[in-house]
Structure formats: structure tokens, C-alpha cells
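We give the chain.
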Amino acid sequence: MDKFNKLTGVAAPMEMVNIDTDKIIPKLHLRTIKRTGLGKVVFEEMRFNEDGSEKPEFVLNQEPYRNAKIIVAGDNFGCGSSREHAPWALLDFGVRCVISTNFADIFYNNCFKNGILPIRLPAEDVAKLMDDAERGANATVTIDLEKQEITGPDGGTVTFEIDPFRKHCLINGLDDIGLTMEKTDKIKTFEEKTKAERPWL
């Protein structure tokens, strides 16, 4: 997966609480196992009318949020069913970071496995960033994972906590397969030793 070190982009405000995985990616799109192409249907029921036309009131249908890389969300983002398609769809749309007071555990874990940084912050910090995000074209936010800092458009900073192992994986672009491949030499040594000791296997 792509490395995550520093991200600068427009932050889209989504103040609604309990945005569940079915709102992020409706169940009818779960038949695919491809990670690409889902960005066009992310938040489908919130973004589009039944005839396929856009709902102009939805934030991602407004400029400059059409290209938002960051979402500042209401509480309990990613609740509901445990579908990995939800972070797939967000990532395919271009979102690399979601900030909220809380996330559903499975969604939270799936984000890290797919190169998205979910940041938990106290309510007052989320409220400040939500206010920043509502500035439109001036809502540029920078996420510095190495320093664990968020810098708002006014230059103010907010620090965040993250598990050191997950931080390491994101900075180095390591998903589960990447972590396994780091141990290729040890795996090869083990296989050669096993073959020598138990050639009948």
C-alpha cells in the first residue's frame, strides 16, 4: 500500500453522527473483491438521487470538497457491519485520513490495513477542525504522521496519539502482506532447514 507520511489537502466536514458502513458503501456493491472503482459509489445514497443526479446539498458534491483527502466526521464513524469495502471505497475516492471522536473498532482496524489514517481526538479538537473544514477552499489541513500533528489553515496545531506499530506500518506502506515479505529471508531459512531435517514433507 502507499506510504503515509505527510498529507496536505482539503478537509470535508461531515458533522452527522453514526455514519455507518452501509452509508459509506451500500451493500449492493459488496459483490466485488476489487479495491478499485468503488470511489464513484462511496456515500452513494447520500450523494445521488435515484436517477443518478447529484444531491447538491451533500458536502462531497460541493467545491472544493469534491477532491477532499481528509474527512472531519461526527462521532462513531464507520459503525455498522464489518465490511472492508468501506475503507476501500474511501481510499478509491481519494480520502487518506478520517478524523473523529470515535470509530467502530473493525472499521478503525481496517483503515490501517488499507493505508487510511483514522485519528481519534477529543470533542473540542474535532469541533475546532470541523469549523476549519467549513471554510471551503481555505480549509487546507496538514497531517504530519511522523510528528503526530495536525496543522489547521490558521497555523494552529493539534497533536494525536497512535499505536507505534500502526504508525510504523503506515509510514513504510506495510500491509499484512508487506509485513510478511519483510521476513522473506527468515522464511526461506526456515524452509531450507525444515527440508533438510524432514525431506519427506
Q: What stands out?
A: Residues 9 and 140 are 5 Å apart (CA to CA).
